[in-house]
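Input chain follows. Return structure tokens only.
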Amino acid sequence: MFGRLMPKEAQFFDLFNEHAELIVQGGRELAALMAAGDDIQRRAYAIETIEKKADRVTQTTIELLHKTFITPLDRDEIHRLITRMDDVLDLMEDVSQSMFLYDIRTLTPETRKLGEVCEACALQVKNAVRMLSNMSNAAQILKACEEIDRLESEADHVERAALAKLFRDETDVKHLIKMKAIYELLETVTDRCEDVANIIEGIVLENS
């Protein structure tokens, strides 16, 4: 009877997967916003809605952590993973809200590319998280983490080129400041995905 009262370990992985799916949804909306730059208010609201859902998943995970006697992973690892995953969507929301508040209507090939890289990072986060419940997947998980690292480096290069072009060609100082902020926020989304990848790598190396 005591065993039936204990929270099931699988719940943590279910919550990780639920959150990772929301990250993908946010990444998809963000990429669409960066490609088209239209219907900014609607897309910003969509990302905000997704982020709020992810907040609830994060809170549920932390509450479950306090109630669970035996956890499938180290408690600190669970807490760090879900909070770093939540940071990804927080940054996505920051980008979309900034687009709306700054009233940015004209986008660039660099915003499109950074949006695509953010979406690709989100998909790899989901891929790594999906396999985390089975350490026989260690090699594939690490491969997904390596791909996130590669994508973060790609975003860094795109951001640097975009900023160089911006400071070279843009004569409207206000627009320059706005676009600089957007480029930096987009690159930071990939940084937060890399943070998630680093935590997952540590979990795999410790448990496989």
